[in-house]
Amino acid sequence: MGDMPRKPFLSHEKTRHGRIVWYFKRNGKRIRLPDEYGSDEFNAAYEKALTGASTAAEPPKSKTGSFKWLVGQYKRSAAFAALAPATRRARDNILKQLLADPKNADGQFGDITKAHVKKAIDKRAATPNAANNLLKTFSHLFKWAVEAEHMEVNPVIGVSKVSVKSDGFHTWTVDQVEKYRAHHPIGTKPRLAIDILLFLGLRRSDAVVVGRQHLKDGVISLRTGKTGAWVYLPVFKQLLESIEATPTGDLAFLTTSTGKPFSSGASFGNWFAKQCQAAGLPDECRAHGLRKAGATIAADEGATAHELMAMYGWTRLAMAEVYTKEADKKRLAKGASERLANRM
Backbone phi, then psi, for 7, in 5-degree steps? Predict the structure, then answer.
């Protein structure tokens, strides 16, 4: 470091990893500067600190080296931009919740260890899905931070997911589907909603954007929001009749009471829950479960794993095989029972 010119109010420290961290220090105040000494970013930050340049209209900047600064850099990265829109929104919301606590926002990201990550996950043990979503967010964030050379060690490595003892969202029964459709006749928006969810197998976030622009020659062609996979879904007679009988929007089949598209899949889900309640269905019946119901019914009717992948936009064969294996078990059990009955 002897060949570097000394600048007023500038000091440095060595980290335990051997890196040099530079600080602007004046009147008892210390500001961490960007890591690369002499870079344009470093010099600009130093000059600003030296002159005290700031305006009352400017919002306070995140401290370089703080967790808030790291999150800001991450959200401007190609890695974050490459995430599916729904995933970006979900992870952005998680990060915003973390940054709402000044202790998290102002804490030095370089001090975060595996123990800190484990503590955050354990704190959410009562809500395992929330804990695992936080772990996924941390994993992607810190993986990028290591690749960008902001950190040397990914503190997520070695932290395990929380076990989720649940089958997930309730899978609707055929009787529940029929009860809902009997209460909401064809031509109503609630009826069109269940028909789109069931016959197209779309997630809530895709169901609220699908419209006539996606329909050509009797096929819905749509790039799914979560995975980015294209799905090509034939529109059969029952769904087409429901679409034609219902007032729809210009760009989206499903609209609010004011005729505007739903703002998000979540807002649509809240609206749909009220339609389920109106039909006298239990609280466990939600939009999520219709996708599972459709896959279950299709598998029971003989759909193959690859057919389910094509319809539901799944990129992993294992997801589709969850349904086909269960259907195979039912068929095998039925066959075994028939053989036993015939023998006796």
Answer: -115, 145
